[in-house]
Amino acid sequence: MLAAFTLATRPCDTNASFGLDRVCSLPLAGSSDQVIQSAVTAVAIFLVVLVVGRISRTIVMRALRRAETDVQVRTLVNNVLLAATIIVAVIGAFASGFGFGVVLTFGGLASLAIGLAFQDLLRNVLAGIFLLLERPFRLGDVVSVDEVTGTVQTIELRTTSLRLGDGRLAVMPNLNMFTKTVINATALERRQYLVSVWVPEGADLEALIEAARRATAQVPEVLGEPRPAIQPRSESDGRISLQAQYWLDDRSHDPDAVGVQVFRAVHAAVHRAGGGEQPGPSASPAPRPAGDPARDPPAR
Fold first, then answer.
1. What kind and span of H or E run contains 184?
2. For the whole prediction, is pTM greater than 0.85?
3. Residue 169: which H helix or E strand, with range?
4. Domain-embedded: residue 131
5. Chain centroid to CA 277: how far?
6. Same domain flag for 102 and 18
């Protein structure tokens, strides 16, 4: 019995080059007190590092808020500090029981395995870090990626969330947002919009274009520079419409409300210049940004 106990607690032969001397020297039996002590020490180190990391993260985040740092930068710093705290806590807990040599050896093997198994996840995380640093778009911006258009709700390390126009939420991998073409519709203050109206049959097109240009420029919210432009367009049914293109500061004005004013002014000017009878009030098509595909036919 005594021989078995001595054999179980005797350190084994080690190979120092692999950092396994500490593992082999650990007692295999008859030393429950040492095992409990090592476990308690590891848990204590893990909890202490977590608490210290949380306090440090709170102090840093308060300082960033006082400095009025961008929300995206605060999100990046918070996520990086959280990940670093967890990594340091785990390494410290294992090192207290097995030694740094074992931690480095198995840590290298684990990093290789994790890198191969979760390479897509890591690529999305790295893309998220670059998005938060470069800031091609911010929270609240309206962006388009492939066939998806929506308002940016969150920018996390792995995904970016877009709120679509119908209220649905689209969660996009950050790698898509980083490698594909992203159209930011609200990055700049000025944006071009257009509305369309039909041209009365037999009317003088040049006179209508001039009247529509003057009517568009007289809307107070329409910017004087660049000047409004009127473009004739031949529709599929053979009729001709006029597209009033104008620039608007859509951060200061409601594009839909201004679009209604422009439509009514151009609609009235075209019918007066064309000699046609102006119809009563009717529903106006919503203005659409220049370059977007037409969603509605011109109003009659």
1. strand 182-184
2. no
3. strand 169-173
4. no
5. 50
6. yes
Are the beta carbons of 276 and 200 closer than 8 angstroms? yes
3-state helix, strand, coil in the chain (%, to 5): 50, 20, 30
Strands of 182-184's sheet in order across? 169-173, 159-164, 148-155, 142-145, 182-184
Which residues on neighbouring strands pair with residue 145, listed in sequence order? 148, 182
Q: Is residue 80 part of a domain?
A: yes
- Per the listing, tokens 């020490």 go with 41
Q: Is residue 151 part of a domain?
A: yes
The model's pLDDT over 183-213, given as tens digits with 9 standing for 90+, comes to 888 888 788 888 888 888 777 788 888 888 8
Residues 6+ apart with CB under 8 A from 129: 76, 80, 157
- 3-state secondary structure (DSSP) of residue 299: strand
**Angle at the Cα of 164 (from 160 to 170), degrees rounded to 5?**
35
Taking only the tens place, the pLDDT of each residue in 91-146 is: 777 777 666 666 667 667 666 666 666 677 888 888 888 888 788 888 888 899 98
Question: Do residues 17 and 74 share a domain?
Answer: yes
**Contacts with 230 (C-beta within 8 Å, 6 or more apart), sequence order:** 209, 212, 213, 216, 242, 243, 244, 245
Contact at 8 Å (CB) between 114 and 108?
no
Question: For residue 240, what is the domain's CATH number?
Answer: 3.30.70.100
Angle between helices 119-134 and 71-98 (to 10 degrees): 140
Domain containing 231 equals 190-289
